[in-house]
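Incident review: delayed structure delivery

Summary: a single-chain prediction request sat in the queue longer than the usual turnaround. Root cause was a stuck worker, restarted by the on-call engineer. No data loss occurred. The affected request and its eventual output are reproduced below so the record is complete for anyone auditing the incident later.

Affected input:
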Amino acid sequence: MKGIILKSAGDKGLDRTEVYSALEKALESRKESLRKVLLLPPDFTRAHSGAGEITAKLYNMLKDTCQVDVMPALGTHMPMSDDERIAFFGEEIPKERFIVHNWRDDVVKIGEIPSEFIKQVSEGLMDEPIDVEVNRHLIEGGYDLIISIGQVVPHEVVGMANYSKNLFVGCGGHNMINQTHMLGAVYGMERIMGRDHSPVRKVFDYAEQHFACELPLMYILTVTTHQEDRVLIHGLFIGRERKLFEEAVALSQEKNMQFLDEPLDKVVVYLDPQEFKSTWLGNKAVYRTRMAIADGGELIVLAPGVRQFGEDKDNDRLIRKYGYVGRKRVLELLRENTDLQQNRSVAAHLIHGSSDGRFTITYAPGHLTREEVEGVNFRYMDLGEAYALYNPDKLKDGFNLLDNGERIFYISNPALGLWAYRGRFQ
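Output delivered after worker restart:
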């Protein structure tokens, strides 16, 4: 199938009829031969991707002629609740059509990326082989077509999210997730975010070319923004070729990255309670702003829904045990402790979530105590006190001058982009 590229002419995004026509065109030549299809959308943490709506449309297009299963690409995230599933995908896809990905136990190894390649792409920082693991349904499910659906947006581990990341992390296994997260962390998050050809992306490209080329795979990639409670789809890219991803990257860099002429002294970030229930996810407030915050600056995270640190009990326990103590200390702890060595994605997360003392991070959570927050090396603020100072209902995205004369920079959803001081993004 020839790739489909659809971009909106202005800032209002694509009309939904254009999007649906492109989906129909992508399937028209093969629809009659399909008997079993697997859809791989993101989970509710990508609520602004447009992927839920696209998944529901694809299901309705295919359900009368073939079996359609849906497996959200959870990665290490907790399974979606019924409320999240309905809010994201609607009510037309029956619950029994959903498969829950288990990154620890429900995967098969399809290959191994050699240590020599890892050493090369990491500039000598890592030299261990990486197992390529994917959910067994992709290999053993007998699907005629596997459609990966998701949003291209700046990302802290791989540089730009989606494309083959949806397979190898979203539907991937313990070793691949741990090792690639660690690779990104030791290479340096600020060298990666907002860029395409990162070391982690090169690992995914290798896996795609060597071990996934026989999968009957189609990618549907979106580039979106969010305005006045509406998801605007500015670009739709459908096909298999990497060129489509590169086109999406270029558009996302235009739409989802905000460059600032000055470093920011105080940033306030709001985490939607439906989307962010853990610091594992909520630390996007840290990742996506760190290149914008001045040395000695302050980040305040309004987190009404955050009730835990990890997305599962094992990761939560390790985060509580070691805390966000900076890159140097985490690497020391990694060398000294077997439990971290066996869970390198946690070690990587602890590096990502620390400012290394460059700026302070204050959490105002809805469901964690002062002792819990300070126990992982963040500062704590009472949520009510934080709302009295920084009311999200009164703030607008960007610079705000408060009644007390304080000037802050406000972000209503850190998952939507990347903010960087021009002098720090080279």
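Verification: Residues 174-187 form the longest helix (14 residues).
Action items: add queue-age alerting; document worker restart procedure.
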